[in-house]
Amino acid sequence: MKTRHILFNLTVTVSVALAGTGQAQRKPAAFPAPTPAPTEDPTLRRGAGHAGIYQGNDGAWHTVQIENWENDRVYLSDAGRIYKAYLPTELRRFATMGDTVVAARDLVVVKRRFPFVRRRVLLPAVFGLQLYRGGGFQLLSYDSQRPATLLSALSSQLLLRHGQDEWQILPTNTAKFNQLMLKLLGDNPDLVAGLRAKQYHPRRDAAQLLERYSNWRINQYLQFTSQPAR
User: Fold this and answer.
1) 7, 88, 102, 126: which sits with the fewest CB atoms below 10 Å from its CB?
2) Sign of the Cα pseudo-torsion (70, 71, 73, 74, in order)
């Protein structure tokens, strides 16, 4: 009886082991991990676009469809719905839907690092919305967070260029802004008093000041040329 009991237990153990082995063999084979989905090419975009023009680095103007623009790229297409990204180093400016956007080259910006450390950073080129152009001045609005969000509503800066000088960021401080404008526009006696009194605000008055100065210079030139020769 004892021998039969041992043989019975051995048979059950072997049967269970074989059953477990069979179940393990019947498990579905593991498939390899899926390959990552291909990422979209950031230089290409689909869209409807709007009619526009752009000026190449050679100075020539071209008609084009413009889908959208950011501070570091604009999407252009001459046919179809596929738009390719162009950098600010690849063209001078473009215009669409009543706006003109200019490539500002070699822009030096000051970035703050918590708590009080500042460092100067050279941006090779960025796009900025043109607010004014005339009298040798160009004024742009540049937003480092474009396309803007609610959290970046105050992130835009004003960029100014006089002639072929380097681009500079206009101070947001009212006193410093008026001091800078006094250096640039100080030969206009109509503006001097207000600038010395610090009456002008950068965001509100920058374009208006440049336009008033430009008109004054034009009138000065016309008055000079209309005088009879002696």
Assistant:
1) 7
2) positive
Max Cα–Cα distance, the chain, nearest Å: 145
Q: How many CB atoms lie within 10 A of CB 69?
A: 22
CA–CA dist 63, 78 (Å, integer): 8
Phi, psi for 110 (deg, rounded to 5): -110, 120
CA-based end-to-end distance of the chain: 145
Distance of CA 203 to the CA centre of its chain: 19
Q: Estimate the crossing angle of helix 189-196 against helix 202-226, to 10 degrees.
A: 160
Rounded CA gap, 214 and 170, in Å? 18
**φ and ψ at 182, to 5 degrees?**
-65, -35
pLDDT along the chain (230 residues), means of 10: 47 48 51 57 83 96 93 90 93 96 84 65 86 95 73 74 91 94 94 94 95 94 76
Task: Please tell me the distance from the alpha carbon of residue 177 to that of residue 229, in angstroms, as a whole number.
Answer: 41
Length of the chain: 230
Q: Provide the 8-state DSSP code for 93.
A: E
Give pLDDT, residue 12.
Answer: 46
The per-type count for the chain, helices as H runs and strands as E runs, is: 4, 11
Contact predicate 101/130, CB 8 Å:
yes
SS3 (DSSP) at 222? helix
Q: What is the DSSP letter of 179?
A: H
Our CA angle for 89, 121, 163, nearest 5°, is 55
